[in-house]
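Hi all, posting the design record for the shared folder.

TITLE: backbone redesign
STEP: 1 of 1
STRUCTURE INPUT:
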């Protein structure tokens, strides 16, 4: 649906699209209360742990957190006004300014409320309010209410992780003998493993088991027809062209940044892919970007990142453990680095980044390629707008382009651009839920510099 009468970030009205709002009501009434109820239950079930660690103060904190979250659940179920944050964290002012911006756009006649606001905004806002409830309830302010699901996803995917680390070890043992075509074949396989790892999203399943139990490499051929846009050749070309003239064939090129999505099995697929990029000489360094606090149930935080590497090191599987020690070594040497920034846990579309988070934008500009994992990143890349399916990815980015970028995403939201004419209509007739089932995927690339 193409419907707007205003220019959006410099894009003419005829090429723009309205913000998704029609799904907000269903999301607020259905998925969000389910997630909040699980959060409340998790905190209540752990009250004995809080007591053992903090005594009566821990019990009072548990009660206070549940009280705040129960109030939040009532607000979102009854379409109450969106409230300003009151926790004085480093992003509080930015969040409250965003609310004021929405209020000015809506006018003074009616308060910004849950059912009448864009889906992306209210979803992000709920997770930020969960963080506020915890922060206002010391001494349990640092408690990760989603940790149980993330760790369970990791442990229940052990067989798949072992198979993946074994596959990686086989590649590395034969790296010197690999032809360029063989290297490309392994690159495509591990890129697709990272892509399909995105199916393991606990926010979509409201925290239910969504782990990987089979070897991800073995299933790639059967999944290939489900990749609706496959720009993997452009990703490969970008990495190859990042080498400066005169460099030896196996000399490492530049830098890849990976904007992470889910912890658990998906994070392992990202780490394995990053290991391959470095050990093959395709890149010199990898920067990982995660969240400042627990977000969208299963998103990666700094604690999740370090915990996953420690758990991989501690396993009794030879190649899995070896991979973990290698990853720790990369971090110590600075070959890998982990970063977080408040912008990733705010409701902003990415076209706002240059203005609202210029330091982060400048950081991404230093990369030769930025990989954006998952559905939420795609929604923010495209502004969560109701674009026609044939609108170009570069158009939907609306000026966002710090570096060549690629979205690796399994489809779980009603937004998809860059399809061929008739492709979306054919999919809709064959499978009405194709945009939200997680069955289909994209490897979608854009080089903003080449568009200029």
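Okay, here is what came back for every position:
SEQUENCE:
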């Amino acid at each position: 649906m193409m419907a707007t009468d205003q220019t959006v970030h410099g894009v003419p009205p005829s090429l723009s699209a309205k913000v998704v709002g029609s799904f907000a009501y269903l999301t607020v009434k259905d998925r969000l209360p389910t997630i909040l109820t699980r959060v409340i239950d998790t905190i209540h079930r752990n009250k004995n742990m809080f007591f053992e660690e903090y005594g009566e103060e821990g019990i009072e904190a548990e009660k206070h957190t549940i009280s705040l979250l129960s109030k939040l659940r009532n607000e979102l179920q009854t379409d109450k006004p969106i409230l300003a944050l009151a926790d004085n964290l480093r992003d509080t002012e930015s969040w409250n300014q965003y609310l004021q911006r929405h209020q000015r756009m809506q006018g003074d006649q009616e308060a910004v409320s849950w059912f009448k606001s864009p889906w992306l905004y209210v979803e992000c806002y709920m997770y930020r309010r969960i963080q506020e409830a915890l922060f206002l309830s010391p001494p349990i302010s640092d408690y990760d209410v989603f940790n149980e699901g993330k760790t369970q996803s990791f442990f229940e995917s052990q067989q798949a992780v072992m198979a993946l680390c074994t596959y990686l070890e086989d590649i590395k043992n034969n790296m010197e003998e690999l032809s360029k075509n063989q290297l490309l074949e392994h690159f495509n396989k591990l890129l697709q493993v990272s892509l399909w790892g995105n199916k393991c999203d606990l926010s979509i399943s409201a925290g239910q088991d969504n782990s990987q139990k089979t070897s991800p490499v073995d299933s790639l051929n059967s999944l290939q027809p489900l990749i609706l846009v496959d720009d993997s050749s452009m990703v490969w070309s970008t990495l190859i062209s990042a080498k400066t003239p005169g460099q030896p064939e196996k000399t490492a090129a530049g830098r890849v940044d990976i904007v992470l999505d889910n912890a658990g099995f998906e994070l392992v697929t990202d780490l394995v892919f990053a290991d391959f990029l470095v050990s093959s000489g395709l890149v010199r360094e990898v920067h990982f970007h995660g969240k400042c606090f627990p977000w969208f149930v299963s998103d990666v935080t700094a604690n999740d990142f370090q915990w996953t590497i420690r758990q991989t090191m501690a396993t009794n599987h030879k190649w899995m453990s070896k991979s973990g020690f290698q990853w720790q070594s990369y971090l110590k040497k600075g070959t890998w680095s982990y970063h977080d920034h408040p912008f990733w846990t705010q409701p902003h579309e990415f076209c706002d980044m240059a203005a609202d988070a210029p330091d982060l934008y400048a950081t991404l500009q230093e990369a030769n390629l930025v990989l954006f994992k998952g559905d939420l990143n795609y929604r923010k890349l495209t502004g969560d707008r109701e674009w026609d399916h044939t609108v170009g990815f570069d158009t939907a980015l609306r000026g966002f382009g710090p570096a060549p970028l690629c979205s690796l995403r399994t489809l779980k939201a009603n937004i998809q651009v860059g399809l061929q004419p008739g492709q979306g209509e054919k999919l809709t007739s064959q499978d009405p839920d194709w945009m939200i089932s997680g069955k289909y995927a994209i490897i979608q690339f854009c080089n903003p510099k080449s568009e200029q």
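COMMENT: The chain has 20 helices and seven strands.
Let me know if anyone wants the other runs.
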